[in-house]
């Protein structure tokens, strides 16, 4: 594990960041769903620590000043916040493009109309399955969730709001992929994200029950490639594969602190939603500093900017400016040190081990899932 990092002398040598383009506002960690692949940190922010409406209004006013164009309201479930409509309106008045990332189980026609009237630009709904309500609800950890999502998606399209379907795929639902694609078309979505689970946060606890086999992954990739060709002009499909089977890592978040940041429910500015899991980094809060200062000077954001921090093999690699060494959160989760090469990379000394681990775990006949219990604790599905 890395020790607390002294970054006080780094400011001079750290490259100036580009202007951030998009921000994910995590309004709350509260959520009615219990998804076993939740990528939020193990230690969730309490409701009493959340930023107030006034805090958020001030933060929203600061976003255009530092170049931000898009604001994604997320969580947890952002609809739990009573001030969501007000903040969407405020963001629109500040000139920001607004997107609501939601489970949709708290949406109804009245809320959809209020959000549309407030100027919301786009909605993204996550789906846990397509075929059997009970199975989708089992994954979500909430009875009745799937039907509510279907109804909310229809209301969103009736309100003429653009819709993205986010299909989170894993070993227990990959056989439903063709129906998930059909579902997105039937709902009138303009975009479908087929996103294999990424194993950060709570998802790491359920990796052995969720990671697909290599055969499943290859079949899913064929299905997606065929659908992309067939549905050209009807549905845009984005595809995210599980890192453990990759040869080269993804350029996570476009690079640490490059074009994007997260604001956690309690106001911390993070390069991604999982970064709070990296021990030894202290993230600055909008409660203590203006956003412009944080973006430029926060030691934690500067820690992995540029390439000076890299170790071998990244340090001398021809791809270092392209993938920026992969994902720091994954490097930390799998090796204990965020400075290490992401083991998703075939050049990482840990890559073969991770690949073998994926093969072993995916072959297990395991369906039981661990869920976060409301109010703390853990419960296990009968599955
Ligand atoms: Fe990317 Fe590092 Fe792998 Fe090179 S060694 S491909 S820079 S992760
Ligand atoms: Fe944090 Fe990849 S999720 S850097």
Task: Explain what this protein looks like in three dimensions.
The model is unreliable at 1-14 (pLDDT under 50). The protein is α/β, with parallel strands linked by helices and 383 residues long. It has one domain: Aldolase class I (TIM Barrel, Alpha-Beta Barrel). The protein has a nine-stranded mixed beta sheet, with helices on one face. The chain has a two-stranded antiparallel ribbon with strand order 10-11. The protein starts with 21 loop residues before the first strand and ends with a strand. It has 13 helices and eleven strands. The structure holds iron/sulfur cluster (SF4) and FE2/S2 (inorganic) cluster (FES). Pathway: Cofactor biosynthesis; pyrroloquinoline quinone biosynthesis. Its EC number is 1.21.98.4. This is PqqA peptide cyclase.
Gist of the model:
The protein is an alpha/beta fold. Helix content is 31%, strand content 14%.
């Amino acid at each position: 594990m890395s020790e607390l990092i002294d970054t006080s002398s780094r400011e001079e040598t750290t490259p100036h960041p580009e202007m951030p383009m998009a921000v994910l506002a995590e309004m709350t960690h509260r959520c009615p769903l219990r998804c076993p692949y939740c990528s939020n940190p193990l230690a969730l922010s309490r409701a009493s620590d959340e930023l107030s409406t006034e805090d958020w209004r001030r933060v929203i006013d600061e976003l255009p000043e530092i170049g931000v164009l898009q604001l994604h309201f997320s969580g947890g479930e952002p609809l739990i916040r009573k001030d969501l409509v007000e903040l969407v309106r405020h963001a629109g008045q500040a000139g920001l493009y607004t997107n609501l990332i939601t489970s949709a189980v708290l949406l109804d026609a009245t809320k959809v109309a209020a959000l549309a009237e407030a100027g919301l630009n786009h909605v993204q709904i996550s789906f846990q399955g397509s075929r059997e309500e009970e199975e989708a609800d089992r994954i979500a950890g909430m009875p009745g969730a799937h039907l509510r999502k279907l109804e909310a998606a229809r209301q969103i399209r009736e309100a003429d709001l653009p819709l993205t379907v986010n299909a989170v795929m894993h070993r227990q639902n990959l056989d439903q992929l063709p129906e998930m694609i059909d579902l997105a078309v039937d709902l009138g979505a303009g975009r479908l994200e087929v996103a294999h689970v990424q194993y950060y946060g709570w998802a790491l606890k359920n990796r052995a029950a969720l990671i697909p086999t290599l055969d499943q992954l290859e079949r899913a990739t064929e299905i997606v490639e065929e659908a992309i060709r067939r549905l050209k002009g009807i549905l845009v499909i984005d595809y995210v594969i599980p890192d453990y089977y990759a040869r080269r890592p993804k350029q996570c978040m476009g690079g640490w602190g490059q074009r994007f940041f997260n604001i956690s429910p309690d106001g911390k500015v993070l390069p991604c939603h999982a970064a709070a899991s990296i021990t030894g980094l202290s993230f600055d809060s909008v409660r203590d500093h203006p956003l412009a200062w944080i973006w430029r000077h926060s030691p934690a954001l500067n820690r992995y900017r540029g390439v000076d921090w890299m170790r071998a093999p990244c340090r001398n690699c021809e791809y270092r400016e392209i993938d920026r060494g992969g994902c720091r959160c994954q490097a930390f989760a799998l090796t204990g040190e965020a400075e290490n090469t992401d083991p998703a990379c075939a050049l990482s000394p840990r890559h073969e081990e991770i690949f073998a681990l994926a093969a072993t775990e995916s072959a297990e006949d395991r369906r039981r899932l661990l869920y976060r219990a409301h109010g703390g604790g853990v419960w296990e599905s009968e599955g």
